[in-house]
Write a structure and sequence with these properties.
Elements: H1 8-46, H2 48-53, H3 72-77, H4 79-82, H5 90-97, E1 112-116, E2 124-128, H6 130-147, H7 150-158, E3 163-167, H8 174-185, H9 187-192, E4 193-197, H10 202-212, E5 216-219, H11 221-232, E6 242-245, H12 252-262, E7 265-272, E8 275-281, E9 287-289, E10 294-299, E11 314-319, E12 330-331, E13 335-338, E14 351-355, E15 362-365, E16 371-374, H13 376-383, E17 389-398, E18 401-408, H14 414-431, E19 438-441, E20 458-459
Parallel strand pairs: 3-4, 3-5, 5-6, 6-7, 17-20, 18-19
Antiparallel strand pairs: 1-2, 7-8, 8-9, 9-14, 10-11, 11-12, 13-14, 15-16, 17-18
Helix pairs in contact: 1-6, 11-12
Length: 466
């Protein structure tokens, strides 16, 4: 949120976003149809993957439901054919995202690059072109207009729009990378925006936030829930105007704990590495899809539509803004419930609720009997770092014991990767004060949930059939 020093392309896009909202559902649908035709035409002409996939299909105008869905494994396996710029290669993106010094800079001078494992467990490398980045930045205007009252605007300005993003910063993840990109682009943002790595010890994170005094605090719900407990205990002393949740799902109890402890206006945003701003919430507890630039289709396991009012098996994403890596009917892996009728808030955009990623918070016991609480995405970001790891899964088996499963890329030296992964995990745990924790190598590769079919990276208890 809070666009500062916006460039002309961002301003033009922002103006159109305002006009789309005022035009109502019909105006949104017109924009979506034009952009879908342009995206599919571009994919057919410039992406070898889509040229083959769509060969023989009609499409003038494009009927989205007639196009075959795609998955992350399919796209990653055909990465060099999938991208529409021949200068982009998987090897090049992997080398770029392996260098932490390049966080916040643009790949080949023009593409925002990030990586993610996601709920499916399949790692992903994602690029966003400059047109898409302008849309994501302009979406901040829509968020600001929807969320902020005049009094809150004034409070943000008095606080110099200090924005703290509490996110995983151990790699080229979308949250940290996007914040660093904004800091590199604008001197005002360089002073106002700051990333606070989840991987640092909690006491250091609390001290840093106390010194910074953010007026905007954003982060994963599991991390903000831990910070809410620190605020209640009196160790954290911040007074945010807005608290933004993103990256995980949270129940009503968790929301209430964060809201009452941290204060400020609590809001949700639905985002992913594949599309940085998909939906934002309203006062009635629904997320409204930015449907002029994003298409979300709740579907069953066979990819047939899920009726409104029923939770879907998964959701198909079409990102209309990004042409360098076309995502058309892409299986995002989240369960989504679409509202049957218009939302009472009056928004012209479709309303949904999301059952997204839900890894567990770990509670480990130290040698002297203290409890160390660890947010799952911080743990996951540590486990994602060793080269050669396809996916990882950490299961807590006792107060002081963990079981680590690794699924490795082909032709990877298993012993070397295992040693690096356990060394990184042990170092992270020690930095949090959790020393002498037993980490055992799992006999099996990471497993999906028996009920949902989703992959969970951090589990605070052994999986059960329920």
């Amino acid at each position: 949120m809070c666009v500062v020093g916006a460039r002309p392309r961002v301003v033009r896009t922002g103006v159109d976003l305002v006009r789309a909202r005022r035009a109502g559902p019909a105006g949104v649908a017109r924009r979506r149809a034009v952009r879908l035709d342009a995206l599919v035409g571009h994919a057919r002409a410039r992406s070898g993957f889509y040229e083959r996939l769509y060969r023989g299909l009609g499409g003038d105008p494009v009927e989205l439901a007639a196009l075959p869905p795609v998955s992350k494994p399919d796209l990653m396996a055909s990465f060099d054919e999938w991208v529409s710029d021949p200068a982009v290669t998987r090897a090049g993106v992997e080398a770029f995202t392996a260098d932490p010094a390049r966080l916040g800079s643009l790949f080949l001078g023009g593409y925002f690059a990030c990586r993610s494992s996601g709920t499916t467990g399949q790692p992903g490398l994602f690029l966003h072109d400059q047109a898409a980045c302008a849309v994501y930045e302009a979406m901040s205007l829509r968020i600001d207009l929807q969320w902020l009252s005049p009094g809150q605007w004034w409070a943000l300005l008095r606080g110099r729009v200090r924005w703290a993003a509490v996110v995983g910063a151990g790699g080229h993840f979308a949250g940290a990378g996007w914040m660093e990109l904004q800091r590199r682009r604008d001197p005002v943002r360089r002073r106002a925006y700051r990333v606070f790595p989840l991987e640092q010890p909690l006491r250091e994170l609390v001290a840093a936030l106390n010194a910074f005094q953010p007026v905007i605090l954003s982060g994963y719900p599991s991390a903000l829930d831990i910070l809410a407990a620190e605020q209640r205990a009196g160790r954290l002393r911040v007074h945010p105007v807005v608290v933004e949740l993103a990256g995980e799902s949270i129940d009503d109890v968790g929301r209430e704990h964060i809201a009452t402890s941290l204060g400020g206006a609590l809001h949700d945003a639905y985002s992913a590495s594949e599309c940085l701003v998909m939906a934002v919430d309203c006062d009635h507890g629904w997320l409204h899809v930015n449907a002029d630039w994003v298409v979300l289709e709740p579907v069953q396991a066979d990819h047939t539509p899920t009726p409104p009012g029923i939770a879907s098996h998964t959701v198909l994403l079409t990102n209309l803004a990004n042409h360098v890596q076309p995502l058309i009917r892409y299986d995002l892996g989240d369960s989504v419930l679409a509202r049957a009728g218009p939302c009472p808030c009056g928004s012209p955009f479709p309303a949904i609720r999301v059952q997204g990623r839900r890894d567990d918070v770990l509670h480990l016991t130290t040698a002297d009997g203290r409890t160390v609480t660890l947010p799952p995405l911080a743990v996951g970001s540590v486990l994602d770092q060793p080269p050669g790891v396809l996916r990882s899964q950490l299961v807590q088996t006792g107060d002081r014991s963990l079981l680590l499963g690794l699924d490795l890329l082909p032709e990877t030296a298993e012993d070397a990767v295992w040693q690096e992964a356990t060394a990184r995990l042990t170092a992270y745990l020690s930095a949090q004060g959790a020393t002498d924790i037993s980490v055992t190598k799992a006999c099996e590769a990471p497993q999906r949930s028996a009920t949902s079919g989703k992959f969970r990276q951090v589990i605070a208890r052994p999986p059960s059939p329920t």
